[in-house]
Task: structure prediction
Amino acid sequence: MESEKGNYHLVEQTTENQILIQSKNKCDKYDYLVAVACGAVGGLIDVFFVGAPNDSTLGNWTDKQVDKIVMEFARKTGWTPREGKENSVASAIGFLERNSRVNYDQRYTSDVKEMFNMNTKNHHMMSLAHAPDIVGLFFSVLNQFTSTASFIANGQIITIKTDTFELQGTNFISKIFCGIANWLGHIMSDIAGSSGGRGSTVGRGSGVVIPFYEMFQFCKFGKFQVGKARQDLATIAIRAFQEGYDFRFGMAMAIPVIITDLSIRLIWSLRRYFQYGYALKECIPTSRHADLRMMLLLGNGTLCVIDGMDAGIRSGGDFLRFFTRLNLIAWFRFAMLVLKEVCIRVGLKDALTETIEAYKRINAALLEYLHELELIDIEAFERETEEYNKVVRIITNAKTNQELNTILLDMFDEMEIRKPWQGNFDEHMSNKGATLYFE
Result:
């Protein structure tokens, strides 16, 4: 029991650990200053280097990195550009488009039988299978198997029939694998824009959405001022995507969030190790430490405040401009931190934590049991088992009680088992002072 406690004292749901989590890890004034400073640095990076699509220093850098990734992915999958096209992202995209064709790549209103309005700038958002997330993967495989295409239009999911499309593969599992590979290849062909868009213009092309951004199309509510008109949130989200608020720009928005988070964790760890002299394992920045959670909340909150103020000031009352300057990655991160902290403080995570720790203990016990099994001498075990089987066969063949007694006594001697009596059994049992000794 002592060894078990020693192994799990950092994760057990004990009163001592709960008190440690909720009350002993308090922030001092320097923790607050560090959190605000790190959040302010992230906010300034967001204001001056992220900005809005088509006007972003970091956005231009992430666009170039995505282009490099697309070309490298194309090379890994067989792209051999002709001379002079080695650094042409349009050529790489064209190769991926030819090798990862799908049946759900409709681009125009006429392609969907006039059921809803769509064009080349927004079809990557409206087509569910083009989303680079679990939703996109599900609908991509579904559409490939059923020869359909699924879209979000006017706040509803609309599915249309397409030309017959047959996945490669000889069985169900291989077809699933091919469908996933085809989805990935097609996402890579679209993430940096189309081959036509990148080859004929100097623009960045229409990429794919930020993961789960496509769900904004269900937000058919609100009346927000855009120019002289009022539009709902779904329409504004689509228009923002058409202006470049895509996956590549999402990567740029994630940079100040990552910088804020990592800088807070690093300074927190260094203070605990050098200033307070904690052991190295106690300086690992995890959510177990309430002071670190509070610093992350404050730092990300500062980043969001600066981002919101900048978006509000520069938008001039136009909600579309406000939306395109808003760092959704930062706001999503802040919301997740708040939700996590609320769950911890009201105790909603206790049951889940206890279950996880129970599985950890079961896993540790199984590993220990497997280790003990590995130490067993299998050959010796087989020899002993054969001896016992031999005894069983001999005993089974006994015809009378006398024969059985003789066999048992012989087996005692043969197997060198010490009998609990001395001499003759009947004489031993007739002696009232005699005792049976079992070892």
